[in-house]
Amino acid sequence: MSASNGDGHGEQVVITATVASAKRLARVIVFAFETCEDEGCPLSHLQKIALIEAALIEYDGFEADLSTLTRLGAMFRELPQGD
Hints:
Elements: H1 8-38, H2 45-59, H3 62-78
């Protein structure tokens, strides 16, 4: 996990956001499993795996997106300000 622009603060923000969002994603998955069980239609082992796989596929690339946005933000801040 690294923002390749050498900005330690930007890299730290990306890592923090990635970890925080991964925790939220995990909670959503657990909540989905519990909701299905509470409603009387528990998921099978294969259905749980499929749900986790779908979540991971959707989540893949999130860190790269954050790194890109962090670098773009730094570049925009470095642009000269017009009067």
